[in-house]
Amino acid sequence: MEKKSKKQRLTLLLTRSAIMAALVAVATFLVQIPNPATKGYFNVGDIMIFVSAITFGPIVGGFAGSVGSAISDIAGGYGYFAPFTFVIKGVEGILAGLISNRSSVLRDGIAVVVAGSEMVAGYYLTEVYLYGIPYALTEVSGNISQVLVGGLVGIPLGALLRKRLPETWIK
What we know:
The chain is mainly alpha-helical. The chain has a single domain (about 5-170), classed as Orthogonal Bundle (Arp2/3 complex 21 kDa subunit ARPC3), CATH 1.10.1760. It is built from seven helices and two strands. A two-stranded antiparallel sheet has the order 1-2.
């Protein structure tokens, strides 16, 4: 197998990141169940954030989570959340990618729990700041549900992609 040049590796990284950010944006945008109390919404974008991080690592996971989710917030009329989302979902993708060793489903599960906990806590603190504790509490169960759905679908999908994609695409 030939060694890739620095330019080829960067091109692959940018390509993976852009594709996964687009998939996060679409998944987040297509399923939106609003929470009127906080003006937030339940979505399934965490599935693609976890797939991105578990399959390709923290750089792609962080980029896809931050950019894809923020784009969806802006496109869906939730632009006021986009700066918070950019940080919260970016950190979620980075954490999941750092913890997952891209070869163990158990590590993938731990990655989802830790990264998902950061996401739930991040949005809770954001909503406490914006709306107060009573309203922020209404969003916690929806965010936990997003993590559960994201992990239940994202872990097996990420594991499948790791097996099916050429090794040169994953590394």
